[in-house]
Write a structure and sequence with these properties.
253 residues; alpha/beta; TIM Barrel; eight-stranded parallel β-barrel; 8 strands; 16% strand
Length: 253
């Protein structure tokens, strides 16, 4: 298997990713050169269009790094176009049931396993690698379901048992919001939900993911100890904002 992200997910091994909301290849280049295993282009909350994402994928492909997209929604058009652009991992948001997870997997796979359409595209080098790409794509695309609503927590077992789901990825802010507890990540409802999330991932032998937006050594180690093996560390806009504030504070003190 060439996709080291999917390989790590299937083997339940730790894999570390970066997260981009700035739609410029320079950010991806810096992250990839730093050594992230994968980089997620945020198409849901970042102001990034398909063309910018495609150029970011080209940049990431120059390194030993896997391009991933967090989609705006569970939508076949977004799934098909991102995969055709060269993304090799999908984080699909707001998956609340097994049926929704199954539909997403079918949209991400070529027949006979799914409904993805065949065509020349960047992923198969505009037809030059058409045969080899379509032969291997179903085994090489990492498919990750984002769990970010109380309904998803209620249907976790159904989601986790869907064939083709390689990992689950918690979305804590939206999850807390669906409980009427926006941002209160330490409340009892959230604690119970996260406990169930990790237990279900463990019971089904599926990789568990989360995003540590402001990472520190203690929090990273704690997450790994808890059972998370798919970790997104930081965010380009946060790194930029925090370092800027730090140096200005030092200069003015």
């Amino acid at each position: 298997m060439k996709n080291k992200l999917r390989k790590a997910l299937l083997e339940k091994k730790l894999t570390l990713g970066g997260w981009l909301q700035i739609g410029h290849p320079a950010c991806a280049e810096i992250f990839a050169r730093a050594g992230f295993d994968w980089i997620c282009v945020d198409l849901e909350h970042g102001a990034i269009n398909l063309e910018s994402m495609t150029n970011i994928c080209r940049t990431i492909d120059a390194f030993d790094c896997v391009p991933v997209a967090r989609l705006p929604m569970n939508d076949p058009v977004w799934i098909h176009r991102c995969l055709d652009a060269g993304v090799r991992g999908l984080i699909i948001p707001m998956i609340n049931s097994g049926a929704e997870a199954k539909r997403a997997c079918r949209n991400a796979k070529y027949p006979p396993l799914g409904d993805r359409g065949f065509g020349f595209c960047r992923a198969n080098i505009h037809g030059m690698d058409f045969d080899s790409y379509i032969k291997n794509a179903n085994d090489e695309i990492a498919i990750i379901m984002q769990i970010e609503h109380k309904d998803a927590i209620a249907h976790l077992d159904d989601i986790a048992r869907v064939k083709g789901v390689d990992a689950l990825f918690i979305g804590p802010l939206d999850l807390s919001g669906s409980m009427g507890q926006t941002g209160r990540l330490e409340c009892q409802d959230m604690t119970d939900a996260l406990h169930k999330y990790l237990a279900v991932c463990g019971n089904h032998g599926i990789s568990a993911g989360r995003h540590i937006v402001r990472p520190n050594v203690d929090e990273i180690h704690q997450a790994i100890k808890q059972g998370y093996n798919l970790l997104a560390l930081g965010l380009d806009v946060v790194f930029l904002a925090e370092k800027t504030q730090e140096v200005l504070k030092a200069a003015r003190s």
